[in-house]
Write a structure and sequence with these properties.
Blueprint: E1 2-9, E2 18-21, H1 37-47, E3 77-85, E4 97-105, E5 110-114, E6 117-119, H2 121-127, H3 146-150, H4 154-165, H5 168-200, H6 202-323, H7 329-431
Antiparallel strand pairs: 1-2, 1-3, 3-4, 4-5, 5-6
Helix pairs in contact: 6-7
């Protein structure tokens, strides 16, 4: 296994994407001070999971991101990708090449990837534990750490030897196992304390269990009673609903018939109203005719009175004429002719008066008939309005019954929905 390629972007002085091909021909990187030689080693160390900013020659994690220059603006993140040749299968991944990537943003978000799949820092450390590339191994030694390597303690040298021999991962697993065993012992001690505490609470809990059993039996009886009452109420509600439904249907049918009858009555009333209007017009015409006939009758009576007055005068003249018969014979004849003409005119006026009285009597009779028909139509219309009011009351009662039925159904559904909660409460009481 060997490092084939290093891809750097945004790490310290690497503002552009930089690929370093390590094909075996590179044995050293030389250059003047400050040109960034150490940044290559820092990028490899950072890509392998180094978290200490001091080892990266920085004061904080954000300082590894390119901070900009006079000609370049700062970047928002730093990313390093290490490509390893895994033809020999040194790394436990079924792939001829393994890539390890690390990205860090200015917001503080850090992300690791193995072969472009997100992972944890611990997964990277476990992968490289036996490869000799651990961040604490001898494989990466800074120029300031040579004196530390020469003056290292036996424990530090043992750690380097263990990592080179491939036992560092097992040592870390051993430490993790010991830590878990200590935690398990702590949990066992806590469980032991809880058992002792529960032993002290056993007797009170036994008494409470007896009380719970009695409560459960009483509750079961109460539940059966409530269910029986509920079933009875539901049956009664169903019967009431069926009765109300039948009654509602009959009332609706009756209301429909009454509505049709009311419509027919309204149409009849409209026809009668039109007939009444026509008859009222005729009656008004007859009244006008009667008024004119009365005027003519009054005139005829006046002329009759004049004729009678003339007749009286003629009688007087006749008396005077009889006294003067001899001398006034011609005047008597004239008077007789005038009397005959007056009597004839009086008879004609009497005939006209009788005819007018007969016409007026027939008009009064027809007006009375029309008034009677109008009164009957108004009575029928009033009955139809009463039936319509009854139909409206029936509809209101039907809506009230429907509302009550919906409330009963909603209560029944609430009871049915509450049954699982009651069963769950019973189970919890039994467990207690």
């Amino acid at each position: 296994m060997k490092l084939k390629r290093v891809r750097i972007f945004g790490f310290k002085t690497f503002a552009d994407k930089t690929d370093l091909e390590l094909d075996g021909s590179i044995i050293a990187v030389v250059g003047p001070n400050g040109c960034g030689k150490s940044n290559i080693v820092d990028s490899i160390l950072w890509g392998l999971g180094e978290t200490s900013a001091k080892h990266l020659r920085a004061s904080s994690g954000r300082e590894v991101i390119f901070s900009g220059s006079a000609k370049r603006r700062p970047l928002g993140y730093a990313e390093v990708t290490l490509h390893f040749d895994n033809e020999d299968g040194a790394l436990p991944i079924d792939s001829p090449e393994v890539s390890i990537s690390r990205r860090f943003t200015k917001a503080g978000d850090s992300k690791y990837q193995i072969n472009r799949k997100n992972c944890r820092l611990r997964d990277v450390a476990d992968l490289l534990a036996d490869s000799g590339l651990g961040k604490a191994g001898y494989a990466i030694v800074g120029q300031s750490e040579i004196d530390q390597a020469l003056a290292a303690s036996p424990q530090q040298r043992r750690a380097w030897i263990d990592e080179a021999a491939g036992v560092q991962r097992y040592r870390a697993r051993r430490v993790e196992s010991i830590r878990r065993l200590d935690a398990a012992r702590t949990h066992l001690q806590r469980i032991h304390d809880l058992v002792l505490e529960l032993e002290d609470q056993r007797e009170p809990l036994r008494a409470e269990a007896e009380i719970a059993k009695r409560y459960r039996s009483v509750r079961d009886g109460l539940r059966e009673t409530e269910l029986a009452i509920l079933v009875k109420e539901v049956c009664k509600a169903v019967r009431d609903y069926n009765e109300l439904d039948d009654k509602s249907k009959s009332q609706a049918k009756l209301a429909r018939l009454e509505s049709e009858r009311a419509d027919d009555l309204e149409k009849a009333a409209e026809r009668i109203g039109k007939t009444v209007q026509e008859l009222e017009a005729k009656l008004e015409a007859l009244r006008d005719q009667r008024h004119s006939d009365q005027s003519a009758l009054e005139q005829a009576i006046s002329r009759r009175k004049i004729a009678e007055h003339k007749l009286e005068s003629l009688d007087e003249w006749e008396k005077r004429m009889s006294e003067e018969a001899d001398s006034f014979e011609e005047r008597l004849k004239q008077a007789e002719e005038d009397l005959a003409e007056a009597e004839k005119s009086s008879e004609q006026e009497s005939a006209v008066l009788d005819q007018l009285e007969t016409s007026l009597s027939s008009a009064d009779s027809e007006a009375k008939d029309l008034a009677e028909q109008l009164r009957q139509a108004e009575s029928t219309l009033k009955d139809g309005r009463v039936q319509e009011e009854k139909r409206q009351r029936v509809l209101v009662e039907q809506e009230h019954r429907d509302t009550r039925l919906a409330e009963i159904k909603e209560e029944l559904e609430g009871v049915i929905d509450a049954l699982p909660d009651l069963i769950e409460a019973e189970k919890e009481a039994e467990e207690a």
